[in-house]
Amino acid sequence: MHLGIIGDDFTGSSDAANTLARGGLRVVQYAGVPSGPAERGVEAGVVALKSRTIAASEAVALSLGALDWLLAQGCRQILFKVCSTFDSTRSGNIGPVAEALRAALAARLGAGAAAMGPVLVCPAFPRAGRSLYQGHLFVADALLSESGMRDHPLTPMRDPDIRRWLGYQTQLGVGHVAASTVFAGADAIREGALAEAAANRPLVVVDAIRDEDLHAIGQAAADWPLLVGGSGIALGLPENLRREGLVPVRGPDADAWAGSRGRAAILSGSCSVMTRAQVRRHLADGAPGLEVSADEIVADGAGAVGRALRFVDDHPGPGEGGEGGNGAGGAAAGAPLVYTSADPSVVREAQARFGQERVAGAVEGFFAELARRLVAGGVTRLVTAGGETSGAVVEGLGLASLAIGPEIAAGVPAVRADGVGEAGGAGGGRPLWLALKSGNFGDERFFAQALDVLGQTVPEAGRPEARRP
Ligand SMILES: Nc1ncnc2c1ncn2[C@@H]1O[C@H](COP(=O)(O)OP(=O)(O)OP(=O)(O)O)[C@@H](O)[C@H]1O
Ligand SMILES: O=C(O)[C@@H](O)C(=O)CO
């Protein structure tokens, strides 16, 4: 393994895995730190943590555990994958984790902080509309603070200046390499970042508005052990490994992929603008959907799970039946959806009544238990919307690792877990196909598209390109 990724949530981790797989690397996503060594042939390992919104000290401890494992697998460079909208609070967790990883890597390299070089920080992901200009983060044509992210249930983002926001979170100096330098290419970025580090500003926020900027940033950072960013910052990393002859030249998605047409369900705990549009579209298309409120879950979680299970059983989706399951396309579009996705004002009221942590824990516990029961009951295709929600589901199902399949939408691959519930739990040792969707990713038709892609079987080196609207 050459490249190690520490993801601060599960959807973000599959986003990074998708970028690296599309870049021609053999990638596996692990749910948490594996208990044994990686299988042979993995070139990039993504350790998915659920550390975005926990206490900073816990996030640091988990991330250092992931770092140890990745270094033991032979990784020479680590990417700390954070959200393309830099989701974090003023008091955590990106700064403390970046600082701790930098210190630990410096100690492991044995040459002190100087050997570390600058740590480039860039959340930009142009394919998903995230760009960074003059240190300010944009979501499409709006500043981060004027996008739907200002109302995020856990990490409302109300300051678009990433240099300032990161500065609140760290003792280290925060530098900046501006777009004018980035446009001049990898050597200029390198020089600019080294100058910032020499001026005691080792965390260097780098502007990027196009994929080519991110390729140049990746090239500039080829020798520096730590990077921090969205999946865009990973774009240039496979080429660095090829340039050194560490991995062969290989097309994107070179491996075969076998999907499933079995029973499907969609679980959505994301309250983002895009997820709510996807929920509305799914229902408008005539597909079955059950909204479950936070109040109901807090009052009687087991009862809410029971009601949701009955709903899924009563609405299995057209075309479904027995072993063959429901087909792709129109049939998949009718898959049952269970959602708590609610308007920001509804979320705020629930948080005021019960407290943010309690309501988030209850809702995530609901989805984890529902997923366990659905998979035990024969569901083989699951779409989950929301990073925290997806993390709760993957952890709840006890999945150890995920193979990366074709891309469904920018930043969202189809993934497969093998031998689910081998020890006798949910799944009975069968594979499970999933799409872990970040809150704001995909277009309105994402749910139907996801189920369609999860149902595809693609021969080697012949994957279809991502579905577009
Ligand atoms: N109706 C609700 N009331 C209060 N909180 C809710 C409600 N529905 C969901 N939540 C909580 O809101 C949070 C949503 O976070 P999640 O990460 O799943 O979605 P997201 O932030 O849109 O996705 P991403 O992190 O990928 O951008 C979860 O912790 C969830 O439990
Ligand atoms: O970078 C992103 O926006 C996503 O991969 C993510 O991390 C959302 O949870």
TrEMBL record:
Catalyzed chemical reaction(s): 3-dehydro-L-erythronate + ATP = 3-dehydro-4-O-phospho-L-erythronate + ADP + H(+); 3-dehydro-D-erythronate + ATP = 3-dehydro-4-O-phospho-D-erythronate + ADP + H(+)
GO MF annotations in UniProt: ATP binding; kinase activity
Known EC number: 2.7.1.217
Pfam families: NBD_C, SBD_N
Sequence ranges assigned to domain Four-carbon acid sugar kinase nucleotide binding in this UniProt record: 334-447
EC primary class: transferase
Keyword Transmembrane helix: no
Keywords of this entry: ATP-binding, Carbohydrate metabolism, Kinase, Nucleotide-binding, Transferase
Residue span, Four-carbon acid sugar kinase N-terminal domain: 3-236
Function: Catalyzes the ATP-dependent phosphorylation of 3-oxo-tetronate to 3-oxo-tetronate 4-phosphate.
Annotated family: Belongs to the four-carbon acid sugar kinase family.
Record's protein name: 3-oxo-tetronate kinase
Originating organism: Aureimonas jatrophae
